Amino acid sequence: MNRKICVITGSRAEYGLLRWVMQGIKDEPSLTLQIIATGMHLSAQFGNTYKEIEGDGFAIDRKVQMLTGSDTGIGIAKSMGNGMIGFADALNELQPDLIVVLGDRFEIFSAVSAALVARIPVAHIHGGELTEGNFDDALRHSITKMSHLHFVAAEEYQNRVIQLGESPDRVFNVGGLGVDNIARTKLMKKEELESELRFKFQERNLIVTFHPVTLENDSGLKQLMEMLEALDSFPDIGLIFTMPNADTSSQLMASLIEKYVKSRDNAASYSSLGVVRYLSALACVDGVIGNSSSGLLEAPVLKKGTINIGDRQRGRLTYPSVINCEGISLEISKSIDTLYSDQFQESLICGIGSIGLPGSSDRIVEFIKGTSIEKLVTKTFYDMHCESFNSLEIGQANEN
């Protein structure tokens, strides 16, 4: 029986990780791929990145417009409400057997909430992780509780999903999709990238990606200004800025970045680089600075250093290539000096590790293909305390 698998994507970064899962579903004869694009994919402000999905040879079955254009707390909440309405209609029309989602954004929370009441099982990728500086942390764990299959990136994350009450036989450690994505992407040469971006690489270069910190009162604006002040101390470094996600106060952040870029000849900003151009740029620069997960997931794979500012990513697994620092100009400047030090650069050459191995996408598709979904919607809370208590009783009984 051919099963309809609906992948829902709302952002450039998320699609970059889902790309090869989608291709695997599309190529599997026993599965039919459906795609719903939403959120930033459908916004001109964020680059209309749904075109990249179509450019990769995928047909988008439904587009759910949900963003209100407001980046206030009320505006984001209203966008979530729009999403619930749009996903209810889209899922009713497509009637998928299973939906596949990744991560922790509010667009995905709306989609999974609609699937929950429609009794459609959900496969969730990259659950169990922590980002303590964002309300995405709560959204991710909520999505876990509304999901039925879990594909996690590391053993620690697997244990956390089980700790949330999910049955161990539904939680699969497949490794991080960032490794797989880089291994399967043909990167552009430096000269070609310079031509496309209209950006001339300097002797030293950094990618700058800074997103709102949604659990802080100023949403990270102060940290952003401190980072820009620190970068002023390094006028020789070429800077490639990628714009913030559609979160609280993102529009003000974008305005500050645009103003800063205009003040420097060796800086440029992009609403979206796309998967290939972003990874190609990452391969050409010396490192990443900001608070994006790409500095923790993709940069280590390409043996690039990361300056991770503030608490937005606090709780994620990190590697020696990641320099954590406070959002204070002086500390950020010291971290840049550290990144360019001979000792640090030599450590990158020796290898720094990464989450998982290539093949994660294929492993996910195999699990989806081989798992019966008839009774997935019904779940029993897995109580780790009771399991430990029963094991203890058995052990005591054996001793007696």
Succession of helices and strands? EHEHEHEHEHEHEHHEHEHEHEHEEHHHH
State the name of the first-level CATH class of the largest domain.
Alpha Beta
Shape: globular
Average pLDDT score = 90
- Portion of residues within helices: 40-55%
Classification by helices and strands: alpha/beta
In angstroms, what separates the terminal alpha carbons? 52 Å
Please report the total strand number as a whole number: 13
The whole-angstrom Rg is 21 Å
Provide structural commentary.
With 400 residues, the chain is an alpha/beta fold. The protein folds into two domains: 3-175 and 359-388, 3-Layer(aba) Sandwich (Rossmann fold); 190-349, Rossmann fold. Helix content is 44%, strand content 16%. The chain contains 16 helices and 13 strands. It has helices at 12-27, 50-55, 73-94, 106-117, 136-146, 155-163, 177-183, 190-197, 221-231, 250-262, 274-284, 294-297, 329-339, 342-349, 360-370, 384-399, and strands spanning 3-9, 31-38, 62-64, 98-102, 122-125, 149-152, 171-173, 204-209, 237-242, 267-270, 287-290, 305-309, 322-325. The protein has a seven-stranded parallel β-sheet, sandwiched between helices. Strands 10-9-8-11-12-13 form a six-stranded parallel β-sheet, with helices on both faces. The longest helix is centred in the first third of the chain and has 22 residues, at 73-94. It is globular, with a radius of gyration of 21 Å. It starts with a strand and ends with a helix. The model is unreliable at 391-400 (pLDDT under 50).
